[in-house]
Design a protein that fits this description.
Number of strands: 8
CATH architecture: Roll
CATH superfamily: 2,3-Dihydroxybiphenyl 1,2-Dioxygenase, domain 1
Strand order of the largest sheet: 2-3-4-1-5-8-7-6
Structural class: alpha+beta
Order of helices and strands: EHEEEEHEEE
Shape: globular
Largest sheet: 8 strands, mixed
Number of domains: 1
């Protein structure tokens, strides 16, 4: 597997308006459009993004939950199918993106969520 860059970090928030005030006004980050249908806000930092997601799911408690709606770091990979097969070869669980886009999620040994997509 070849990771080519880090894409974004997802941060769970409880009060979107308060968080948008902090990230947009206090830190001065540029808010960008997003097309997903759950509450949140995306901010651009150079070639990197911060994804604010309104907390509705307890992270990693249940492998049937949508992992992408939990805190995670996202990486671009050279070949998504190769990354998927390598994770499976090492007996790591994977979950495809609930949005239908070409992305997958896995967990590190401590349960931290890792997203991979082919950019």
């Amino acid at each position: 597997m070849q990771i080519t860059q880090s894409l974004h970090t997802a941060i769970l928030v409880t009060d979107l308006e308060r968080s948008e005030q902090f990230y947009g006004k206090v830190l001065g980050l540029s808010k960008i459009n997003r097309s997903l249908n759950y509450p949140g806000a995306w901010y651009q930092v150079g070639n990197y993004q911060i994804h604010l997601i309104v907390a509705t799911i307890v992270p990693t408690e249940n492998p049937n939950e949508k992992w992408g709606r939990n805190p995670h770091v996202a990486f671009s990979v050279a070949d998504l199918d190769t990354a998927k097969q390598e994770l499976l070869n090492y007996n790591y669980l994977i979950q495809t993106s609930a949005s239908g886009r070409a992305a997958l999620f896995t967990q590190d040994p401590d349960g931290n969520i890792i997203e991979m997509s082919q950019e």
